Amino acid sequence: NTVMAAQMTDAHRRFLQVLMSNGITEGSEARKLHQHCCETDKVYYAHDKLDDFISTINSHLQPLFMQIRKGISEDNGRAHYAVVNLAETEVTKMASDYTETELELFRKTMDLIILSENGFASSTDILNLADQLKTKKMKKKEVEQVLKAFVEDKWLSEKNGEYTLHTRCIIEMEQYILSNYQDVARKCNICHSLTIQ
Question: Major location, coarse class (predicted)?
Answer without folding.
Answer: nucleus
